[in-house]
Amino acid sequence: MSKKRRHSQSRDGTASSVLSAALLAAVQERFELDWHGVHGIHHWRRVRENGLRIARATGANVRVVELFSHVYDVCRENEGGDPGHGRRAAAYVEELRAAELVRLSEEETGLLVEACTYHSNGRTRGEVTVLTCWDADRLDLGRVGIRPDPKCLCTAAAREARVLAWAWERRVRPG
Ligand SMILES: [Fe+2]
Question: What is the pTM (predicted TM-score) of this model?
């Protein structure tokens, strides 16, 4: 067994209809960096929690938000800028669909691909599910010592003081 602990559900015990054990095994196999590093599994789990929380206010498609959290950084080749990793993640989404590990409608797939492709470009405008995905990621900047700038967040839900404080308090907690 590698240092990557196999997992079939999120640490909070919430079974997900989209994050299947088979999908989680696939992304674990695909990920080349430190599983417990700043772009690894604990970050993804916090991003999922962030996304689900703000989705309650934004009305985002939670299937897309959950899948985003566990695919958008999977194809990173380094822990730095890695400008191509969003596009690689988008292509990976298509691979996962072909393998039937991701089952989404065409519309949902389009949202997930857009969210992955542009997640690190600093954009703040777009469809609400896409914006919720980006904010879920940005709310976890505290893990690297950066307080998210409300001006760089896309949704009013993520800019709420209590949400920012909640995300900051959880910034280095294992996800
Ligand atoms: Fe990223």
Answer: 0.92
